[in-house]
Each structure stands twice: as C-alpha cells, then as structure tokens.
Amino acid sequence: MPSTNLISALTRLFPAQRLLQQSAQLAPYESDALTAFHARPAAVVLVETQQEVIETVKLCHQYNVPFVARGSGTSLSGGSLPIKEGIMIALNRLNRILRLDPAERIAVVEPGVVNLDVSRAAAPYDLYYAPDPSSQLICTIGGNVAFNSGGAHCLKYGMTANHVLGMKVVLPDGEVVQLGGESLEQVGPDLAGFFVGSEGLFGVALEITLRLLPKPAMYRTVLAAYRSLEAAGEAVSQVVAAGLLTGAMEIMDNLAIQAAEAAVGAGYPKDAAGLLIVELEGEPVQVEAEFAHLLQVIEITNPYEVRVAQDEADRMRIWKGRKSAFSAVGRLSPDYIVQDGVVPRSKLGQALAKINQLSATYGIRVANVFHAGDGNLHPLILYNGREAGALERAEALAGEIIHMCIDLGGSITGEHGVGMEKLQYMASMFNATDLQTMTNLRRAIDPLELANRGKKLPDGEAPALHLHGPHPLEKLGLISRE
Amino acid sequence: MASLQTFAAKTITDVQSFVQNNSQILPSAGASKPALTTTADNPAHLELGELSGILEYEPAEYTFTALAGTPITEVAAALAGNGQYLPFDPPLAQHGATLGGTVAAGLSGSGRYRYGGVRDFLIGVRFIDGQGQLVRGGGKVVKNAAGFDLPKLMVGSLGRLGILVELSFKVFPRPQSYATLTVPYPTVEAALGGLQKATTARLDIEALDLVVERPDGQHTVPTLWVRMGGLESVQEQRIAQLRQILGAGEMMEGFVENATWQAACEFSWAPDQWALVKVATTPRHIQGLEQILSTTKALRRYAVGGQLTWIAWPGEVADLHKHLTALNLSGLVIRGATNQARIGVQTGQVFAQRIKQALDPVGKFLAL
Ligand SMILES: Cc1cc2nc3c(=O)[nH]c(=O)nc-3n(C[C@H](O)[C@H](O)[C@H](O)COP(=O)(O)OP(=O)(O)OC[C@H]3O[C@@H](n4cnc5c(N)ncnc54)[C@H](O)[C@@H]3O)c2cc1C
C-alpha cells in the first residue's frame, strides 16, 4: 500500500489536527452533493497555504498516489468524490482574497474563497463578481473554476471561464505554472481558459485572478405564470427571438414552485404550471425602455398572470425562491437526482413536453427548475433510496433525458460537469477520436493520472467506489511500459 | 500533392491528407495578418481560403457554424440581415480576415469591451491535429461543460496546435444604434483618469479606447473614445450622463461614428509598412509604455479600456521585443518584418508544451 509511506511523509508536513485519518473525521468527506456515492480516502489534508498544496501534490506524485482537490463539496456530478485510498486536499482554509484592485477591476483570490465573498468584498467599490451559481453562499472559486460554473445571471456576461483572467496552478507532478495574467487579452493559446472546466484533472488552482464588473445601476424583474410548462418554454424562445438581451431568464415548474413557496414564501403564483422569471439589468433609461418592450413580448406569449417586482426587497424574494429551489425540492422527497443538460433554446418547449411525458411513463415525479435563457435544464428526479430499485429507475429516467438533450443537438452537461455521473454519456457526445485526444491531453499533463482519477474521461479507470481488482496504477504502469 | 509547396484545400479531407503527407505545415487564409505566416523554416503552405461557407445559421438560436476559411465580412453580412452581430468586433475584416484566422490569432477589436472577446463567443471547434485526425471540441449550444474546453485552447494557438476547419459561435442581437463621446485630454495621465472613471462607472459602455497620436502628428491630444450602443430613443440621454461623468466631450453619431470605429478596426491609422503589434495590457501598464513609446515615432492606441494595446512600430521588431520584455508584457506581431510573431514574455510554457506534445507529437506545425 503506497499510501502508508505517503502518510508518514504527510505527517511531517501537517499537524495531526490537519491530517485526518480516523473514520469519524473522514466521514464528512466521503461524498459530495451527489450523495448516492461514497468512497473513503486514505487521508484528508486541510491545507492552509499554497505551499502545503504544492508539497502534498509533489508527495502524491512521488508515491504514486491519486489525489482529489475539494472546495466545499457541492459538486452535483461526483466531481469531488474521493478516490478510495487516495488523498483528499481540502482547500476551504486556503481562502484569502489576496488583492482587490478596484481601478484594475480585478480580484486575486485563493481557491477556497467562497463565491459570494468576492462580490461582498467588491461591493464597497460598486463592483461585483458576475457568475452566481445557486450554491454561491458555500461553493468555492476553485470548484467554480474546475466546473466552469454558471448561474442565473450568466446570459450576458458568461460563465466562470469568461471571468477568469489568470491562474497560478500546481500541475499534477508538482510543477507550478502561471496561466494567463491580469489583462482581458492574451497572446498565445488561452491556457487559463483551457484549465477552466478541466474538473481537477489538470492539477490544483492555487491563485485565481478574477475580473470584476461594475454593478448594474438598475434591475427590472418580471414573473410570468403559464398554464403549461411548454408555454413557459416557448415564451423563452420568443424573448430570445425578439432580440432582448436579458440578464437572467429562469423557469420553474409547479412542483418546484410549491417547494420554494413552502420553504421561503417567495410569493410565486402557486397554481402556475410554468413560471418564467426574466430580469433586465443595466443603465436605468435603457433598462426602462427595454422593459416596456419585454412586457409586450411576454403579453403575446399568453401568460395568465404577470407580476413585476416592485422594489429591491420584492426582487430579492423572487431570487431567494429560485436559488433555494434545489434544497426546497429536497423536502418533497427523501432523495433526488439533480440532472443537468442543455438543449437549443428554440427547442425548450419540445424538451419540457418530453420530460413530462417521460415522468408519466416512469411514474416518477420530476421537478423542473432551470436556466432557461441558455437552454440549460435541471430536472430534479425524485425517488426514495430505501425502495428497492428506485435509484436505478430514477437513473434510467435521468439517462433518457440526457439522450433527449443529445438528440436535440444539445449537451450532456451545461455546468455541473461530467464528474463521475456523466461518464457513460461522453461517448454519445464525442466520437472515439475526440475522446482519445482528450485522454492524450490528460496524459501529457498528468502521465500517472493522479489528479482526480476516474472522473470526466470515460476511459479513465473505474471509479474507486467499486475498485476491487488490481490497483489502477499497476494497470497504467503496464500500459506505459509496453 | 506532397511535393506542392502551396496547396489550396477545398474540403476537410484535403486538409487531413495534406497534414498526413507533409512534414511541416503552415496554414493561412485571408493573409490579413502576414507576420503570422512568416517563418524562418520552410514549411509547406496550406491555403484555407477556399474552405469557406456558413454551414448552419439559426437566427432564433443566436448561433452559427461555418468553415474556417469563411470571411468575416460574409458572416457579418449574414448576421446583420437578422439584426445580429459578432460582439467581439473582429479586426481586419475589410482586409480579408477569416473566422479561422481570427480565432487562431486570438484577435478581438475594440467592441470586445462590453461582452467579451473571441474566446468568449467561440463555442465549438473542429480541427485537424498533428496526426491528420479530425477532432471536435465544444458544441453548438451556448452552454456546454462536456469535455475539455478545446475551443478556448485554439484561441491564439496560431495554427501551431492544429488546423481549424470548422467553428461554431454564439452571437448577440446588435444594438439598435450607436453614439460616441470623444473627450480630449491635455496629457495621457489626465486621460487615464478619465479612463478610470469610465471603467468603474455603472454604465454599459460598448467600447472605450484611448487614442494617442504621435507627438508631431495632426492629432496631438490624447483622446478618449467612448461608445454607447442601445435603443435610439435613449442614446442622447445616456451620452449626456456620460458627459457629466467625464466632464466634457463631443458627441458623434450616425455614418461618421460608424465609419470611425470601422476604420479603427482596420487599423487605418497604422502605416502599412510599419509593424503592427498587439500587446495584452491593463491600464496600469500604460504609463510605463508611454515613457518608452513617446520618445519614439510609434503610434499607439490603448483599446478596450486599456486592456488591448495596439502599437504601430516603425523600427526593428527586436527592439520592441526588448521593451516589452523589460515591462513584463506579451505581444503579437500581426504585420511587419519578423519571423517571430510572439514577442515579449511568454507565460505557461510548461503547460503549453505538454499540450503541444499531445496534439502535435511529431511537430508538423510550427513550434509554439
Ligand atoms: C444546492 C446547489 C445548487 C447549485 N447550483 C449551481 C448553479 O446554479 N450553477 C452551477 O454551475 N453549479 C451549481 N451547483 C453545483 C456546484 O455548487 C458547483 O459545481 C460548484 O462550483 C462546486 O464548488 P465546490 O467548492 O463545492 O467544489 P467541490 O464540489 O468541492 O469540487 C468540485 C470540483 O472541483 C475540483 N476542485 C476544487 N477546487 C479545485 C482547485 N482549487 N483546483 C482544481 N480543481 C478543484 C474538485 O476536484 C471537483 O472536481 C449547485 C450545487 C448545489 C448543491
């Protein structure tokens, strides 16, 4: 067992209270927000400095032991699931905002900084960090970088990748490199952009330079309630086709509305089959003029009720309901799968009708709450894990939804990543050459496949949770020796 | 075919077999950025101008897919027909720039200020790797987290990681109208103060350039150009607000306004015989650059709120390389006498070389 030697080396690096090895200490790290899966790492290190990350990665490389970086563990695709007998590098305490330069409009942060804390720190300067995943109260910038996370307000200014200017990273063999810089522009391949979304396979981001934006001077938010979910989907296509560049455009179905109402009392129309939330942001004169246009477009889509947010408190209530929807749905059912797929925006109505139909066929409740403006679906599939075969049926339904996304010309994931959960669908989206190229890239960067082994790339080793036979490295060693 | 020194590919398969049959390949298309296709080596030239055409364009979807050799002008015309545009403002369109060349060079224009650069709008690529294989990355929908972000990797790759053959972009609705406020300042320092006010104001500015002409030229005054795009009915009000923040300025509208920005995008201010160099900067670099450049004849334009510096350089490129290196800046020569397009400092080389090894193991394309 190579990790015994590694553990003794780590003992010299970390005080006992930051090197977790006892079952009780490891338990909180055994899964991420994809709670159906568990695996126990050999140890968890609670790093406090960048140097500790570098030393840990070097040791893992030296002893041939895989490692997983972890932010807050809110990954919904199993991205931060530990590798059995591997090392977990917990980054929550590596959470300093190193520099916030309002004149240059940048923030340089360590990876454990919580997403919302960046905007909080920038607020006194009327600046903010745009990507706003619903988990922004807890998820970290490191996790956001790994998944290119998005949020409700990513329609205009894009997802994480569009806001990361540069990064200092430690590659899986311990080498430290600077990617990108502080400028919006760069010369040569966009290496920082390429690192974003690599799901921890290219190493650990140690320091991230983020772009900040001036806070929009005004928001205007409207709710439109529809008698069918498809109608809400069609409305999105109408708003997009009208040439309105909205800041956010979200949909919730009745189940999600009920759950959000019960949880936070957002004031949504409770009987709506589909609820559309549209928000415009920017300079007041421009926003007011566009808002008048937006209301006209919405009128044509035949909602049975339209509500305009009256003030900031009203607006915050609307967003609180939306952002708490995932956890609120959790109250409806002991277990649920959060699915993440993308369809072309003009096919939203069609996709939602199909999901409804699948839900009926399987006899499984599906709640829908998603980023409609960019066609990013999040069906929440409700099941009871204690019922025999229920998880499997829920997964089968999730699989059908994903195949529908591919058939409609979309993607198997918009923002939650492939992780472990979507491995089986990669081959439906990419051909053998595409996948082999990605594997080649991964191996060129990490020949031993130490960083987050078993995730993202389908031909990687089987995930550690059912690792029985020979150790993957033995197998890999054989391959590379041939 | 292997014996030909220049070959014009008409199909993707043509590109594949050319890569397989030649030992060193240099792709080109519109020839609008000649410094990027000049090298001391003697590679076989692959012409991609005929690999052209829009393959899919779904106006309601705000996305399109086209072959890499498609001219920017053709794309812009098709989009304009539906009130849409490429918000990153690709430069040199009138000089024949193509989609593939724009991505490979990683070039965006002044309009990238508002919504982002070419890296932010490219959503899918197909390219031929160093083994002649057709590889796809990304997709055709505006949001997609499956696989590594190969589209980003290809931005700025200069044809040295693969030959782009097909590209998918997202696009945006084009603002109904534009207006520009031009604000002259007595010194660059004063202009930088104005620039800072504009970048941090809660305004939706479309483009923000600081234009510094040569000291002995006609326009001796550093001038801020601030462009606003949006609904025509509110433009005057918005410009008035902007003028209040900046304290002065002339409003420019209509045909003249449009032509002025278009000329900037074509670098009509830069003498043809001089080198034209892109430098990645931030506003705080400008003083340092000015200290050097103001003592030379170089013309300069600090575009995109000071994030994208363009220098027209009359002297030896090697000298500019030294200056940029001293300032810890990276540059890209797009026109001018050099066979080393990348000048100044280079970061991330360790990472880049590993990527190069994976995509081009036998070195069919130029060294990164
Ligand atoms: C209720 C809820 C709502 C959510 N809403 C959204 C949403 O709106 N949009 C969205 O995109 N996602 C959403 N998510 C998913 C999740 O929050 C994001 O994926 C988030 O970015 C994960 O951050 P984390 O800090 O929890 O990362 P973790 O789960 O700890 O890690 C995620 C991945 O990042 C890697 N990683 C972590 N730190 C680093 C680093 N420094 N360097 C390299 N790799 C690293 C890990 O190895 C892992 O693969 C939601 C999740 C929940 C539970």
Characterize the structure shown:
The complex is a heterodimer of chains A (482) and B (368). Chain A is of the alpha+beta class. Chain A has four domains: 87 residues, Uridine Diphospho-n-acetylenolpyruvylglucosamine Reductase, domain 2 (2-Layer Sandwich); 118 residues, 2-Layer Sandwich (Uridine Diphospho-n-acetylenolpyruvylglucosamine Reductase, domain 3), CATH 3.30.465.10; 111 residues, Alpha-Beta Plaits, CATH 3.30.70.2190; 143 residues, Alpha-Beta Plaits (2-Layer Sandwich), CATH 3.30.70.2740. Helix content of chain A is 35%, strand content 20%. Chain A contains 16 helices and 20 strands. A seven-stranded antiparallel β-sheet of chain A has the order 15-12-14-13-18-20-16, with helices on both faces. In chain A, strands 5-6-10-8-9 form a five-stranded antiparallel β-sheet. In chain A, strands 1-2-4-3 form a four-stranded mixed β-sheet, with helices on one face. The longest helix of chain A has 18 residues. Chain A is globular and about 65 Å long. The C terminus of chain A is likely disordered. Chain B is of the alpha+beta class. Chain B folds into two domains: 174 residues, Uridine Diphospho-n-acetylenolpyruvylglucosamine Reductase, domain 3, CATH 3.30.465; 168 residues, FAD-linked oxidase, cap domain/gating helix (Vanillyl-alcohol Oxidase, Chain A, domain 3, 3-Layer(aba) Sandwich). Chain B is built from twelve helices and 19 strands. In chain B, the strands form four sheets. A nine-stranded antiparallel β-sheet of chain B has the order 14-11-13-12-16-17-15-18-19. In chain B, strands 4-5-9-7-8 form a five-stranded antiparallel β-sheet. Chain B has a three-stranded parallel β-sheet with strand order 1-3-2, with helices on one face. The longest helix of chain B is centred in the middle third of the chain and has 15 residues. At the A-B interface, strand 9, helix 6, helix 7, helix 9 and helix 15 of A face strand 8, helix 6, strand 10, helix 7 and helix 8 of B.
